[in-house]
Prior knowledge:
Blueprint: H1 14-34, H2 40-68, H3 73-96, H4 102-135
Amino acid sequence: MTIEFDDTLITGNETIDTQHKELIARIKQFVDSCEMENGKIKAIKMLDYLTEYTNFHFSEEEKLQEEIGYPGLKEHQEKHAEFKKNLKDLDAFLEEAEGPTDAFVEQVKSNVVDWLFTHIKAFDRSVAEYIFLNSHPDRL
């Protein structure tokens, strides 16, 4: 599974893009830990590490959206809550399992990697575009 920040994920907002790079790096570390043999403890630690940064990043994004009066803030918050629930579900799955199974890694792929990449390309890019257009009213 390839997990890299690439040009398709650039929103054009330096702060958001920098945080997304960090978030994706943490997801990659988490997935790598899941693929290690006997990696349950490492995977749990990496999931905690990922969850901590996710909470920070989402808080920062929502604060930014509130400051600029972004009209899609409520929907964005709902999407963030969905992702946080996905992480909690993965934590519960991992706690009950002997370790990160193939089924677990598949859930990570669909509920973390695919979800985040889709979210960035749609929701976060629209926030960055809103910021850009509001800071450049001559472009309207």
